[in-house]
């Protein structure tokens, strides 16, 4: 495994310079079953050594626990890391199992103060609206986020799972550094509208779940049987039941391209999404999630793989054949509102 650091690139026209691959930290505290804290800390340090600078969290990952977990790492390396966190997904005060999306300006302010406290830093480098509450005009939400920039609490703004129209309306209020949305060999719906809008506006794309939440790595084949009870993927239509069985068969071309490169399927999935920067002509910084140093090394090494036209053509049909949506309620994603 090479030790050389990954390349750097600007995160769109309004964002900071970052390593061309970031690190998703969600799984260190939440979503995919228990994680070993020591291993996760080692993974963070290894990522930094390899030139990863963009670290992704959110206030709702483990109800604040993920931000708290990351705080010592961020403080130890404050000048080397770009801290990205998010607000908007909360729970109902009456029913903690029910998700509520909030984009209202008082909530934006309350959330940033809470995140700054948990992270124990003076400023958040990239602050995202995590999900869209269609009852609040996006101009109001971004207006409140822009105030945080003026006050020095936040450096750059981002939006997650917004439609092209929402992105345009937001960009008219304040520069937007990045849109973070699901983008992988399994999830390509954003290519219809969001990617062209981001390209036109100079906004970077930060693909989340670029490994298809792990499915593209071949490390599990059915969430019902292969994953623990607490694993969030058991709620996602494409990883369970007959859909999962059908989707496993789609990994065959990924495996054959991987073999040709002496690489893993995970690396081919990451190389594909990274290569969308050249294919689509915009800034793309994927944030694969892992809790393990060895996988950080493997994932970072994928930034050096270049797929041929023939390989891209072989991988092209996969997404259109995927059985099952990416969320049980697709209004949670931009494609469900476009
Ligand atoms: N904006 C949003 O709404 C949103 C939604 C979801 C996620 N995110 C962000 O995006 C980040 C990444 O997405 P994600 O974690 O959902 O999915 P992902 O990156 O597609 O996949 C993560 C899964 O793959 C496994 N994995 C990672 N590298 C591997 C490798 N080389 N070989 C085999 N398995 C590997 C991880 O397990 P191990 O830990 O065991 O390696 C984990 O289970 C998150 O951490 C979060 O920060 C944002």
Walk me through this protein's architecture:
The chain has 338 residues and is of the alpha/beta class. The chain has one domain (8-336): NADP-dependent oxidoreductase domain (TIM Barrel, Alpha-Beta Barrel), CATH 3.20.20.100. It is 38% helix and 14% strand. The protein is built from 13 helices and 11 strands. Strands 3-4-5-8-9-10-11 form a 7-stranded parallel sheet. A two-stranded antiparallel sheet has the order 1-2. Helix 5 runs parallel beside helix 6 (194-201). The model has no long low-confidence stretch (mean pLDDT 96). NADP nicotinamide-adenine-dinucleotide phosphate is lined by residues 24-27, 32, 56, 130, 160-161, 180, 208-214, 217, 219, 266, 287-292, 295, 298-299. GO terms for molecular function: oxidoreductase activity. Keywords: Oxidoreductase. Its EC number is 1.1.1.-. InterPro entries: Aldo-Keto_reductase (IPR050791), NAD(P)_OxRdtase_dom_sf (IPR036812), NADP_OxRdtase_dom (IPR023210). It is an enzyme of class 1 (oxidoreductase).
Layout of helices and strands, plus pairs?
Elements: E1 8-10, E2 17-19, E3 23-24, H1 37-49, E4 54-56, H2 65-76, E5 82-87, E6 89-91, E7 99-101, H3 105-119, E8 124-129, H4 138-150, E9 154-160, H5 164-171, E10 178-182, H6 194-201, E11 204-208, H7 223-226, H8 241-248, H9 252-261, H10 265-280, H11 293-301, H12 309-315, H13 318-321
Helix pairs in contact: 1-11, 3-4, 5-6, 9-10
The chain binds NADP nicotinamide-adenine-dinucleotide phosphate (NAP).
